[in-house]
Amino acid sequence: MNDKDYSCDFLIIGGGIAGLSAALEASKHGKVILLTKGKIGESATEKAQGGIAAAIDQPRDSTEYHFEDTIAAGAGLCNEKAVRVLVTEGVDRAKELIEMGARFDRAETEAGGGFALALEGAHKRRRILHAGDETGKEIEKTLGRRIVNENKVTIHQGMMGIDLLMEDKKCAGALALDSLSGAVKSYRARATLIATGGVCQLYLYTTNPAFATGDGIAMAYRAGAAVTDMEFVQFHPTALVQFKQFEDIVALPRFLISEAVRGEGGVLLNNKGERFMEKYHVKLELAPRDIVSRAIVQEMKATDSDHVFLSLKGIDAEKIKHRFPMIYKTCLERGLDITKDNIPVAPAAHYFMGGIKTDIDGRTNLPGLYAAGECASTGVHGANRLASNSLLEGLVFGRRAAVAAKQPTTNNQQLTTNESATILCKPRFKDFEIQRYKLIIKTAMWNGAGIIRSQESLSSASRKLELIEKDLVYPAGSLDELELKNMLLTAKLITRAALDRQESRGAHYRTDFPKQDDNWKRNLIYKNS
Ligand code: SIN
């Protein structure tokens, strides 16, 4: 073994909420190495504003109500067993976070255990624990602090997973690229957990950080893991729209205006200043996300605009500043005083319901390989995730995967390096060429496989992806080239699944099959043959 070879019991790839929860649990049972693509703390978790849903306010709320809301949002495709686990264990995990010192906003009354619980779309009760509008950051800090204090997890930052090491169809670890030195390192592990987050950087407009390029999903698929529900991408209704022409060129993430703002009374207005959600759903601005996003797209089209407005005029100015300090400050820095000005917003790709197919313990079809969080698909969200169930998912299923992975599956001593794993060669493309290819993917996906799709739009996206695939047949030679290949592969899988599903359900809406059709009440599963 040299300084490029590491060995551990548990290799965890990804440092968001699922990876950190798994690391804390796994470190009770063996040696853990955790790889993060950027610096620790740089993840979609850190950007999560709204909060974490848990039925802690009992008996006013109940896990049964939370179960019903999750199932209803999932449009007939939720795995009920997974939902049951999420809502029941979720209460315990949320309480543990509080015991670990997570500072969620408090209320003046004793209701809700003394916590100021928020309401978000499609929840029938106030059940969202939040830390101002920076809940993800608070949770990440809490878990990170515990990991640092316990000092049992080895963290390697700036490491991007390249490919899984496979031995006799079993996962034996992974190869990773050190983004600073360019060295390829080998990590041997008894159990490998992918917790690399989502894919929404595949879209031109997204709330997701630059890291969300589908790396873990692509890596698992290449190795033979099954992926599922790839057609279900959630578009958040309200991302800030500014400098659109500039955004089109550089494809920066759009700043999220949390759903909790609508939960506190924010209303949507079209470009003519008319409130419009009553035309679309009885729950108005708090309808399920897919419905609000499509309603916004329709209103933008009808008024020939690239945005609608979110008005906070019905909310007390002091409450806005107190409840949404980060949103208030960020908008102010960008020239908008949200206590007075309407906020220009439009939908943006936000969350991926599909991913590496796992059971409720994070097991994939490959022995030794586990997945949890946004990159995994337990079926817990069905065709459309309920607001604020994503942090909860990472917390619950990250830990469960680590518990399951402590059972021995392979013997580390007998493993050898898989020669067929990706070998990095010299980078082939210049930076601007890579950015150009990425932009082609993002534009094709936004226009063809976005909020509203059809056979025609999806086929057009597919053709664009095929065209650039011909240029990208070479082995990747840098982190950016790896990302590009991963983006291309996951984009192809999403497009293929969206073409295959000939109905509309949850976040997947096709104009040529506008109705839900229960012949399609099943999950589409894909495997690299
Ligand atoms: C939000 O704050 O609106 C995002 C929360 C989520 O995606 O569940």
From TrEMBL:
**Compartment list:** Cytoplasm
Instruction: Return the GO cellular component terms, semicolon-separated.
Output: cytoplasm
Q: Which reaction does it catalyse?
A: L-aspartate + O2 = iminosuccinate + H2O2
Biochemical pathway: Cofactor biosynthesis; NAD(+) biosynthesis; iminoaspartate from L-aspartate (oxidase route): step 1/1
Outline the extent of the FAD-dependent oxidoreductase 2 FAD-binding domain.
Answer: 9-391
Which top class of enzyme applies to this chain? oxidoreductase
What InterPro entries does the entry give? FAD-dep_OxRdtase_2_FAD-bd, FAD/NAD-bd_sf, Fum_R/Succ_DH_flav-like_C_sf, Fum_Rdtase/Succ_DH_flav-like_C, NadB, Succ_DH/fumarate_Rdtase_cat_sf
User: Per its Swiss-Prot or TrEMBL entry, what cofactor is needed?
Assistant: FAD
Q: Does the keyword NADP apply?
A: no
Q: Does the keyword Chaperone apply?
A: no
By its UniProt entry, which SUPFAM superfamilies does this protein fall under?
A: FAD/NAD(P)-binding domain, Succinate dehydrogenase/fumarate reductase flavoprotein C-terminal domain, Succinate dehydrogenase/fumarate reductase flavoprotein, catalytic domain
Question: What residue stretches are annotated with the Fumarate reductase/succinate dehydrogenase flavoprotein-like C-terminal domain?
Answer: 442-525
Annotated active site residues, numbered on this chain, are: R289 (proton acceptor)
GO biological-process terms attached to the record: 'de novo' NAD+ biosynthetic process from L-aspartate
Q: Which Pfam family is one of those matched by this entry?
A: Succ_DH_flav_C
The GO terms describing molecular function are: L-aspartate oxidase activity; steroid dehydrogenase activity, acting on the CH-CH group of donors
What EC identifiers does the entry list?
1.4.3.16
The protein's UniProt keywords, in alphabetical order, are: FAD, Flavoprotein, Oxidoreductase, Pyridine nucleotide biosynthesis
Record function comment = Catalyzes the oxidation of L-aspartate to iminoaspartate.
* Entry's family note: Belongs to the FAD-dependent oxidoreductase 2 family. NadB subfamily.
Q: What is this protein called?
A: L-aspartate oxidase
